[in-house]
Amino acid sequence: MAKPRIHHYAINAPADILAEVVRFYSDVLGLEPGFRPDFGFPGYWLYNDEEPILHLLEDNNRQPGTTAYLDHIALRCEDLAATRSQLDKLGVEYGEMAIAETGQTQLFISDPAGTTVELNFAELA
Q1: Pair 34, 45: CB distance under 8 Å
Q2: Which end of the chain is more exposed for a tag (fewer CB within 10 A), N or C?
Q3: Which CATH architecture has domain 5-121?
């Protein structure tokens, strides 16, 4: 299995905060909103040229006073079959989603600290 590379990171926040986040990253780093598959919930993908590096997920049900909005870390990976095999061997539970619009398969795991880690493979399951 090849060593992973950062794919994107995601922020999960209410709509009004996401609007500020879009403006901030557009103004400060020049990231621009672009194509985002229909996941059935609102959000944005912010791009650096052709790479969607910041995913914004709308969640208007956050608890008052919540200030941390990091949702997950995503890694670009290779060899879906070998990764599934390794996760199964180690007894690591995972979720899986095939995204036809982007031609990729995603596996979702949680690390011991509870951080969601999204593993992205440029192949459809």
Answers
A1: yes
A2: N
A3: Roll (3.10)
Match 């609007």 to its residue by tokens: 19
Give the residue from 16, 4, 1, 13 showing the smallest Cα distance to 73. 4
What is the structure's pLDDT at 12? 87
Q: Three-state SS for 105? A: strand
Q: Which residues of 13-29 are buried (b: 16+ CB within 10 A; e: fewer)?
A: beeebbeebbeebeeee
For residue 97, the Cα-to-chain-centroid distance in whole angstroms is 12
User: Where exactly are the structural domains of the chain?
Assistant: 5-121
Quickly tell me which residue has 């989603």 as its tokens: 97
pTM value is 0.72
